Amino acid sequence: xxxxxxxxxxxxxxxxxxxxxxxxxxxxxxxxxxxxxxxxxxxxxxxxxxxxxxxxxxxxxxxxxxxxxxxxx
Length: 73
Description:
Blueprint: H1 2-33, H2 38-72
Helix pairs in contact: 1-2
């Protein structure tokens, strides 16, 4: 069970990091293309903030997995 959880952690971290990177790129492109439109700039900032949350989840994934391992035994 511990090996399965460890493998799941690796996959989860990879997927979250890739998705966060994608959101960061999309947010950056939106920000550059927004010009002076405040609505578009806010959407771009939202995408960048979502990417930062994704990176935070990637950093917290090992902690969360270790908690699950302790609970599961």
